[in-house]
Amino acid sequence: ATPADAAVAERLIDAGRGDAALAKALAGYFLGRAQWAEALATIEKTRQWGATPPPGLIVRLKTCIADFAPLAPGRRWEYIRGDGARVAVRCDGDLGGGLFAVSVHAGAARTERQWEKRDGGRTLCRFSGADFERCHALPIGLSDANETAALPVREYEIDGTRWTARVAEIGAAAATPAGEFRDCIRVDVLAPGESEAVRHFFAPGVGEVKVVRPGRENENLDLVSYED
Questions:
Q1: What predicted TM-score, i.e. pTM, was given to this entire model?
Q2: Which of 68, 74, 88, 66 is nearest to 221 (CA)?
Q3: Is 144 helix (H, G, I), strand (E, B) or coil?
Q4: For FRET with 31, which of 25, 102, 111, 172 sits at 20 to 30 Å CA-CA?
């Protein structure tokens, strides 16, 4: 039988009384339909019953369904820079169409930004103020749970120079004063003329938790606290 939804699948699994083969078949059905949440649930059942899913598949599935840029008015993140300065980021408003007003506070300075979530939340675009030509497009999610699928890469131009942002790692860990975050996506951003990329870590349900800038350690960022 082919389940129409997760509720039907759950009943089939329960009726199977721990049948790992049934759970595996249901997981394959959901994978074929790109229903990542349902596939993840059935694969977790498979694990409980002693079957071994392909290495890394659960991390891939979590990456497909997690929100790595949870933007909502009033949400706030506070970071500490490598030089000890505090930086606060606040989502000030929902402008509609996936676009959000964001402000960055560093000391007495306040900078207005606009961030946009695209591709079902798999890309985060950061605009400098209202200048939509100065946009950093960061891939922060996956659209394919296939273990062999290539990780996303975004290339874009700012002021005539080409930047590259790529998902370099999924399931990464990031240690910060706010705690250790697992199942992170690491996005490496290579600026024109630079030999080493800036590494951005995004945690599911939290957002950006760490930024590592090789050779410019004073500009590193680590999450200190966050508020919904």
A1: 0.89
A2: 88
A3: coil
A4: 172
